[in-house]
Amino acid sequence: MKSRHPTTGKVTRSGAPAARPGSISRREVLQLAGGAATLAAIPTAPATAATTAEQATPAGTLRLVVNGEPRELTLDPRQSLLDVLRETLDLTGTKKGCNQGACGACTVLVNGRRVVSCLTLAAMHDGAEITTIEGLGKEGELHPLQAAFIEHEGMQCGFCTPGQIMSGAACIAEGHAGSPEEISFWMSGNICRCGAYPGIVAAVADAAART
Ligand code: FES
Ligand code: FES
After folding, report:
1. Bridge partners, residue 109, by sequence
2. Ligand 2 centroid, distance to 197 Cα (angstroms)
3. Are residues 109 and 25 in the same domain?
4. What's 80's domain CATH number?
5. Which residues surround ligand 1 with Cβ inside 6 Å?
6. Does ligand 2 lie within 6 Å of residue 193's CB atom?
7. Which of 128, 129, 136, 125 is nearest to 93 (CA)?
8. What residue numbers bound the domain in which 82 lies?
9. Among 14, 24, 49, 105, which has the minimal tally of Cβ within 10 Å of its Cβ?
């Protein structure tokens, strides 16, 4: 039996958990990019009885709640969520690694679910709540998983770390942190070129045990 990985959408071998909502395939992204002109035209289309709040949004306007703060943005509907976060909102904690859904460095939470933000268009998330690494902890206080990463040395160069922590936080919230093996599987979409996996898994396991 085959299933898709939670963040990358890649097909995995038998025994793997089923696909989780919130991930998006490269094919879907290409289809959406090709339909960007259609997306842009939506707000100017004649109103119907089924008009929704999203359709009523002015052309090119996107409303997000980012790290608890409401934001209204005017943007190109072809922009990825990652580019909007980094380049429009200047939230550069979310990293751009491969920019094609393969490394997990760009992982953020969209309505509480982890998403590789390079593979999803920002325009698809009007009204969504986005959490990035900048918004995970409280003001002046690290999130328990951030503290655990430090304690267990779950990083070397640190480039993958924001994505690892966002993915790990979701992994814990999903109940997928019951064993090192389970953590390794559910975090397998997050690549660490430095090979800091033992510390990463230990940090997630420790934070899961504490919470
Ligand atoms: S998965 Fe998005 S930058 Fe690599
Ligand atoms: S700590 Fe360097 S890539 Fe993970």
Report:
1. 114, 131
2. 9
3. yes
4. 3.10.20.30
5. 96-99, 101-106, 116, 118
6. yes
7. 136
8. 3-40+60-135
9. 49
